[in-house]
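FORM 7B: Structural annotation worksheet

SECTION A. Query
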Amino acid sequence: DNMAVECVGYLLEELRNDEALEQFKIDVADANVFIGSLIFVQELAEKVVEVVEPLRDQLDAVLVFPSMPEVMRMNKVGSFTMKNLGQSKSVVADFMKKKKQED
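SECTION B. Predicted structure
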């Protein structure tokens, strides 16, 4: 059996550029896995969620750590999900609330 792996990466700030955002949409639609990290700028977090959330169910895995709660809620690996992040008492939720208050 043969296997091919392609990894496409973006600096978060690139998503402010309309052309880069359109390419990001194409790349996520073609992806099997989405990995994100350090997404703490509200405007950019919203763009990532807008692109990834509609495709979440077709992705094999979504891994986002650490980032704003709305982005981390998209996490899924198999049956593991973080959709309820921030809606109950947890160490992760407390950390994220503290981080958001600091910003």
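SECTION C. Observations
The beta strands are 33-36, 61-64, 76-77, 80-81. The helical segments are 18-29, 42-52, 69-72, 91-102.

SECTION D. Sign-off
Analyst initials: ____
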